[in-house]
Amino acid sequence: MSDSYAAGDGTGRRKQAGISHKRRSGLRKWAGLLAGVALGSFATQRAAHAQYAGQLSSIVMDARTGAVLSQDDPDLRRYPASLTKLMTLYMAFSALRAGTITLDQTIPVSIHASTMEPSKLGLVPGSRLTVEQAMLALVTKSANDAACALGEFLGGGSEPQFAAMMTQQARALGMSNTTFRNASGLPDPDQLTTARDLAVLARHIVTDFPEDYHYFSVAAFRFHGRMIPNHNPMLKAYVGADGMKTGYTQEAGRNLVTSAIRNNVRLVGVVLGASSNVQRTLAMADQLDRGFDAEGVAPVARPLVLARNTVSPRHTRGGRVIMLAAASSRHAPMEVAEAPAGRRTTLRHGHRYVLASPVSGGHHIRLIGAKVRPATATTHRARAGHTSRNHT
């Protein structure tokens, strides 16, 4: 967790029996963030709204050192679209760390949250979902109704207050050119960021919350009898990629943040403003290749074919099935399936997660061009078509 939260008022410093020093520290920091928002709001910044249609902004950083390995107009102020949800998730991870919420805690769905534009789960006013379900909905489907509900929950019932908390946290992380106005990324002329700021956020997610980063590798999860697949193409299209998030609105173009690891070198990359999904994927793959090359990591082949994920679990456990897109050094086609009991991995709070496993067959689709070296990658395991204006 970042050490740069606003200071608390001392209330959380009281010793609490059975709570660790880290938990007490987290509670103080979370209370301080809420207090800071209550004391004042951020001035509206209405300048520099040009969005440079058709012009890419990009950057690649070393996740460990923060060194910039490549960049192209990284400081142009752009609309983040659903990349906004990375900060919503950062705030949720922070609250989990502080102990102010739990994964199984239920979130009420307000009328406001239910009216969000797609992409969405179709949540009904008065219904509830768990914190973990909301987080998974953000990672996979980029659901705007779930993002709003989670934001209201973390913001004391107010999405605008939560957006102010997000902006305050952005400043604390060094994201000086970012302003948030909602939890989802749906269009707002004042919700602005830069490729550099988003790389800073991605790096903090990886380094501050290693116990929660695994959520970004989830290939699908079950919600009310439906399997919700992950929209992120980089999990299958790039060797070593294991998160993070896509984003799209008409105004923003197609955005992408990706983290990938090879030979114990982890990079975070950002591409903003692509005109198509193919351009976005290729631009990210190319810049990550250049980044790994700059770090002295030998190039690897890009897979020419992929298999569709087949989600057909034999049974659920406690009403919950969560699929992880596991990395494979062989990069064989992958089928998501429930692992045998001996291979099932408990990642957090006793919740069971199912790993993807290689298959020999499947429906293959052509992907992007390849390099010539054989594919090898070091996998990282942490502890633990569009429908509307804001599809992913």
Radius of gyration: 20 Å
CATH architecture verdict: 3-Layer(aba) Sandwich
Main beta sheet strand tally, sense and closure: 6 strands, mixed
Q: What structural category do the secondary elements indicate?
A: alpha+beta
Work out the helicity level.
Answer: 25-40%
- The number of E-state strands comes to 15
| Silhouette | globular
Number of domains: 1
Distance between the termini: 26 Å
Spans where pLDDT lies below 50 across 5 or more residues: 1-19, 38-50, 305-389
- Report mean pLDDT, rounded to a whole number: 76
Q: What is the string of helix and strand elements?
A: HEEHEHEHHHHEEHEEEHEEEEEE
Strand content: 15-25%
Within CATH, the superfamily carries the name DD-peptidase/beta-lactamase superfamily
Q: Provide the CATH top-level class.
A: Alpha Beta
Q: Quickly count the helices.
A: 9
CATH names the topology as: Beta-lactamase
